[in-house]
Amino acid sequence: MAVKIRLKKMGRTHRPFFRVCAMDTRSPRDGRVIEQLGTYDPMVPETDARAILNGERISYWLGVGAQPSPKVGTLIKKYGKDGSHLEAQAEAITRLGGRRAAAIEEARAAIASTKMPDVTKPAEDEAAAPADGEAKTDEAAADAPAEEKKEAPAEEAKAEAPAEEAKAEEKTEAPAEPAAEEKKAE
Questions:
Q1: Inter-axis angle of helices 176-185 and 146-173, to 10 degrees?
Q2: Does the pLDDT value for residue 148 go beyond 50?
Q3: For residue 127, what are the domain limits?
């Protein structure tokens, strides 16, 4: 059996992704593999971070006679076990990781700055929220004066009272509706 080290196409339309695999030469491009040896993602913005290879396993397959395809041969020269671009690859992966971390922190900050209305609490609590849209933290609540803490239960009691009145009205209206339905049925 002749073995080739070549790319197996994955991904979707307009978003290619490749696996570097050891395959039988008779198997189709996207067919059965003997062993997966790495990945190649051409959509990564950092050129040197596109290929991630398992250098030891590639060296083994080359040692037992596997032949790389032209593209994989180039990737092996650059990013294989003794590749010429290994330092640049490590730096690119670090930069890419830094961008991802920064993007994650920006997303968390954006989520924290937008206050979603809580449907379980009355609308008056939203008016009591800080003007900049951020909720008070536990530390800020602990540092708040005792007067504000005493006012909060009173506000909650006032807010609950209209809700209780609405529930009482619904209960009184509930028996009237089935009676109206019975008259329509007759």
A1: 20
A2: no
A3: 123-173
